[in-house]
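User: Hey, quick favor. My workstation is busy. Could you predict this chain's structure for me?
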Amino acid sequence: MKKLISILVAAGLILCSVSAKPKKAAKTDLEKTKFTIGHLNSTAHLLAFVAQEEGFFKEEGLNATLLQFASAGELAAGLESGKLDVAFIGSVPSLTFQSNGRDLTIFGGAMTNGHGYVIKKEFTGGKDNLGVQILKGRNVASVKNSVQDAELLLLLKNAGIKVGKGKDEVNIVYFDSQKDAYAALQNSTIDAASAYSPYTSLAKGQGYNVVYYCANEPALKNQPCCRQVAYTPALKAAPKSYKAFERALIKAYKFSQENQPKTIKDVKKYIDINEDYIKTEVYGGFSFSSPDPDKQGTSNLKTTVVELGYTKDYDINKLYNTSIYKDALDSLLAEAPNDKIYKELKEHFDQYE
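Assistant: No problem, here it is.
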């Protein structure tokens, strides 16, 4: 009997050792593990949402917290105060902050395209995509120091339409945030408004029409939108931690390409709107969420906003770090050299660095 009990105990121990698979060891050599990430009320920042919900931050040894802010200015201030380690900030405000001497470095991407303008249907006959001509003589709500505003100014310039209050001009009324600009459509004096993801889908659902999607405008093709931004001294002090952060976002990108239904559910936990709207914004062809820094595209955008008089010129190279993304992607490729998605990211990075 004692022999039988001993055999059973031994078998139990063996079974436990087999069934209890060891978890992947978290990184222990990181300079810091607590990471606070700032984002806007936008599906554009889905990589952070997916990385958190699917455990990629934790897998990389980071204890991540996500905080929502209302504007790019608030996000930048959060970085400078040390409240945030990373912020997803629009490309245009990122450039203007840098131009004005703020020590903020772009080191990754978040979304390309994904914005445009919407208008009340009484001016369109219920039709979408009529272009900026439809805005002549209208009051348009926008956000100063935003990619949406810079794009509109460029399209108006290309169309020979002036900004002003005349019947053949466009009167731009500025608000502090995209949320405020969109809410202004409820005012009888506002005819149209800027919209980044997911406000365009929300607007269509509420009966407004789309003036244009930037993804459909040749002058705005592959326009970098939100960038990953950090306070430069913080980035330099913790390169291993930021590399871990980037690895998590690259994993999240791979997940978003391979699992649409779960990605949509992950996004909904942070942007609580109809899942059909999320699907349209994320997978409808109007935007593309990628962690690639796209330095070439952002540098081209800097040239455009300088020419528009939006900001003064400066040396972007001093505040653009592509090595963190490169090192993170190379390390993942070393672990999975045949992974199709990682290889595609590598090809894109090599072409547009």
